[in-house]
Design brief:
heterotrimer, A mainly alpha, B mainly alpha, C mainly alpha, A: Cytochrome Bc1 Complex, Chain D, domain 2, Cytochrome Bc1 Complex, Chain D, domain 2, 3 domains, B: mainly alpha, 2 helices, 0% strand, elongated
Chain lengths: 287, 46, 468
């Protein structure tokens, strides 16, 4: 039969291919991106954010950064709340990625202040010394074309205002990229709901302990120096070289971060390491 | 049993039947020479 | 039966060009492997990792992979059907269009015109070129099969037909996009749907480009090289139907634990495990064909390439289903384990089989003997060792990074920052780059051997190809 009839073989092979295709690829359209997974607080990208997204695509950032947090303990601790289908309805194309040479970016929005991103994009090693990310300094030289942005928004069917388009004048691709990164994952109020509270009396378990100070120094270099400078004189964040908070308040501040103030929460470091940091910052000069 | 289950089981069962038919047809004793003929062609010089 | 005159010039030209694109793919691959350890090697904006990695994968899969498959399909179809090509002119048009497409793809990718969809990064004008190219290719092959003078179709033809229609369906659906300008478009699908369509495409590109064509080649060139038929044509046929049926369900194993519906993930996981059966059907068929012929592993360099190739296919199709299981995916996904896995398939399975086929047919097309069998053996060992170094170092790096990512302190905090896990990978990335360099040296020896073979043939008034 089909051993001798190539056309019949072709038709049968096509049919075999289409069964799995219809069930696993076509059928999910019935539920995905419908009312079933809608999240009302998720909004389309603004013209500037969409431009940033297009730069992200053009530069192939997805080759090293994923954009989905899986519902796994370590992953939620590291990046934040796990990703939900409704958060991606305006993503054309999706940018979930497949390899984390760099960290996941699904929840990067609001983690750092804008200044952190500008500095990091232009020269990643100045912030993260052993990073292998390339420099994207050239984005500061490329200006956005507002008319092209308008065309893109119309194609995508996203709402926009004339003010948004005219405000693109003079903006660079770097501005767009930072705007996009700050939007990522921040449409749902996960930071508020994931917030942990420090309860009870706070007491430094090992004040002025030498080992704790040394451990704190290493932690500082990895987590704090990028904004507060290696010598604690401040840069993006304020100077810390003069003691300005007592141990308990400093612990609380590092643990909680300052919402809208650009200081991320470092609760994920765990209390043992947070106390080491406190000891380093407050007692490094003590004999 | 609702329609979805009947559809699901029916489809799965149908697929197994098709697979069984392919196996039966391929390994039917009388079919052996016919089915294996093509491989000996590979020994011809071309 | 009298053998007709076969069109050989076109096959030679396709082989020559596919080798060139293969070299480009490997050179870019080696370059980006060094960029991983030294970011200063990124030359912005054109030669950054983010733009070169798509160039590497596309040059490898489409330039080297598809280019060779086109050459070998055109070679095999004539002999399996005992007839000349349906249209030699169309095949020539296909060659020019193929190279034009690859060049356009390479230039536009480096310029940053890309969609971000893995293994489908080219923007819509390049997609259109690919569609025309594929139609020309498919029509020529299918029409040649229809006018064949050999009644029974050998299993290689089955795989060839399935891959032609499979690639067409996958590519057309995943290309769907709305253009904004000549070099920018937005996907027709959004978010989770787009992800599911993309990995339905992505994983079945593995089926229809990196599995079906190499199997067609393996089933043809193994008996040709050993001089004995394959073990069982019937087994190959049952494996064929099972393979092309089951593959299409498995795309979502790239999306385990993501927002894609759970039942789609579960089906993908189940079918991935079931795929071991047809995959190993082909592996056993290959091994059992060697019954009484194993001594050829020592004597016949072609058999070495082919049997190691099918062995890596066997390992690949065990490791793949393992990674498709939810619990293991939770651990290993997003790490270097995955590139280690992919390169065992591409550098091991696919490329070893293509090398064997080219070694077999090139001297015959030139009407001469291969320039040097010792060099072919050296090539074999270099690419084998290079690929093993690559894959093994990446598996170790993947396990290491995964365990660091998931490590949690007694107080419930993470044991390692992300950067602490990256720093630990640098030594493995150096080792990987070394593996890549070894592979590159092996391929350079291969090219030298083929070049000398072609040069040897020139005086004997064999028609020169456009670019030999």
């Amino acid at each position: 039969m089909w051993e001798k009839k190539p056309v019949i073989l072709l038709i049968l092979a096509t049919a075999a291919i289409l069964v799995g295709t219809c069930i696993t690829m076509v059928l999910p359209f019935v539920w995905v991106n419908t009312e079933a997974d809608r999240i009302t607080s998720v909004t389309p990208y603004t013209p500037l954010q969409q431009d940033g997204r297009d730069v992200y695509i053009r530069e192939g950032c997805n080759n090293c950064h994923s954009q989905t947090v899986r519902p796994l303990v370590a992953e939620v601790l590291r990046y934040g709340d796990y990703s939900k289908s409704g958060e991606f309805v305006y993503d054309r194309p999706f940018l979930w990625g497949s390899r984390r040479t760099g960290p996941d970016l699904a929840r990067i929005g609001g983690k750092y202040p804008d200044a952190w991103h500008y500095k990091h994009m232009a020269d990643p090693q100045s912030m993260v010394p052993r990073s292998n990310m390339p420099d994207y300094d050239f984005l500061t030289e490329a200006e956005i074309d507002p008319e092209y942005s308008r065309k893109k928004m119309e194609t995508l069917g996203f709402p926009f205002t004339e003010a948004q388009i005219s405000s693109l004048e003079g903006k660079t691709e770097m501005d767009a990229m930072v705007a996009y990164l700050q939007k990522l994952g921040s449409d749902i109020p996960w930071r508020q709901s994931a917030k942990t509270e420090v309860v009870g009396e706070l007491a430094n378990p090992s004040p002025k302990d030498k080992a704790a100070i040394r451990a704190g120094q290493l932690l500082y270099a990895d987590n704090c120096a990028m904004c507060h400078a290696e010598d604690l004189t401040g840069d993006i964040g304020p100077a810390l070289d003069e003691p300005y908070l007592d141990d308990a308040d400093l612990f609380r501040l590092i643990h909680d971060g300052i919402e809208d103030g650009g200081m991320p929460s470092f609760a994920a470091l765990g209390s043992a390491r947070l106390w080491q940091l406190v000891n380093f910052i407050n007692y490094r000069k003590q004999p | 049993m609702d329609w979805a289950s009947i559809l699901y089981l029916g489809t799965s069962f149908g697929l197994f039947v098709i697979f069984a038919l392919i196996l039966l047809r391929t390994w039917r004793p009388g079919n052996r020479d016919k089915m294996e003929k093509a491989k000996f062609r590979m020994l011809d010089e071309d | 039966m009298e053998n007709p005159t076969y069109d050989t010039t076109i096959v030679r030209s396709f082989v020559n060009w596919s080798i060139l694109w293969g070299l480009v793919a490997i050179l870019v691959g080696v370059l980006i492997s060094f960029q991983m350890v030294n970011p200063d090697l990124n030359i912005a904006p054109w030669f950054t990792y983010g733009r070169l990695r798509p160039l590497h994968t596309n040059a490898g899969i489409y330039g080297w992979g598809i280019g060779s498959f086109m050459a070998l399909y055109l070679y095999m179809v004539q002999r399996l059907c005992r007839t000349g090509l349906w249209s030699p002119t169309l095949a020539k048009v296909q060659l020019y269009l193929f190279n034009a497409t690859i060049i356009t793809a390479a230039v536009t990718l480096v310029l940053g015109f890309q969609t971000s969809k893995e293994y489908h990064e080219m923007e819509w004008p390049v997609d259109l070129m690919i569609v025309v190219l594929w139609v020309i290719f498919s029509v020529n092959i299918i029409m040649t099969i229809i006018k064949r003078r050999e009644e029974q179709m050998y299993v290689s033809l089955w795989y060839m037909l399935a891959s032609l229609v499979g690639v067409a369906i996958l590519f057309l659906v995943n290309s769907a996009a709305v253009p904004v300008s000549l070099f920018k478009s937005y996907s027709a699908f959004a978010g989770t749907n787009d992800a599911n369509v993309q990995w339905w495409f992505g994983h079945n590109a593995v089926a229809m480009v990196l599995t079906a064509p190499p199997l067609a080649i393996f089933y043809y060139f193994l008996p040709k090289s050993t001089g004995v038929p394959i073990y069982s044509h019937r087994l190959s046929i049952v494996a064929f139907w099972s393979l092309i049926f089951m593959y299409l369900w498995t795309g979502a194993h790239h999306l385990l634990w993501t927002p894609v519906p759970d039942w789609v993930q579960t089906l993908a996981m189940g079918f991935s495990v079931m795929l071991i059966a047809p995959s190993w059907g082909s592996v056993f068929n290959g091994y059992l064909s060697m019954n009484g012929q194993w001594h050829q592993m020592k004597e016949n360099y072609l058999v070495k390439f082919l049997i190691l190739g099918i062995t890596f296919y066997g390992l690949q199709t065990l490791q793949g289903p393992l990674q498709a299981i939810r619990s293991f995916s939770a651990f290993i996904h997003y790490t270097d384990w995955v590139p280690g896995h992919v390169h065992m398939g591409t550098l091991g399975w696919v490329s070893l089989v293509i090398f064997a086929a080219i070694y077999y047919l090139y001297p015959r097309l030139c009407g001469t003997e291969l320039h040097s069998i010792p060099l072919a053996n050296l090539h074999f060992w270099l690419v084998l060792v290079g690929q093993l170094i690559y894959s093994v170092s990446m598996w170790i790096a993947g396990v290491l990074q995964a365990s660091m990512w998931h490590a949690i302190n007694p107080d419930g905090s993470l044991s390692f920052t992300f950067m602490e896990t990256v720093v630990r990978l640098y030594p493995y990335w150096w080792i990987r780059a070394l593996g890549g360099v070894l592979y590159l040296v092996g391929v350079l020896i291969f090219i030298y051997n083929i070049y000398k073979t072609a040069a040897k043939a020139q005086p004997q008034s064999v028609p020169a190809t456009e670019n030999a």
